[in-house]
Amino acid sequence: MTKQKFVKIYCLSLTIPFLLLIFPLFSIANRETPFIIGLPFSVFWVIFWIVVTFIIVLFLYKIDPDKDEKEVH
Question: What is the dihedral of CA 59, 65, 67, 70, to 10 degrees?
């Protein structure tokens, strides 16, 4: 995978969760009911997208083309 393609995937995959956490898209989940795992839906929504973003970052780290290159000084 080229570095340019990786950067595009990186930006797109982290922009989507970010947009779902800010206004106006957060208004989709901005309600108290239903309760999921004992949390109001809005709190569950934020925690869910934080966990999804973490998983995306782990995946992106694994496919990073520059990860195994050693720095040369």
Answer: 170
Q: What is the CA radius of gyration of the chain?
A: 17
34 secondary structure, DSSP code: S
- Which pLDDT does position 58 carry in this prediction? 94
On whether residue 61 sits in a domain, the answer given is yes
Domain range for residue 45? 24-65
Residues 6+ apart with CB under 8 A from 45: 20, 26, 29
> What is the number of domains present in the chain?
1
pTM > 0.70: yes or no: yes
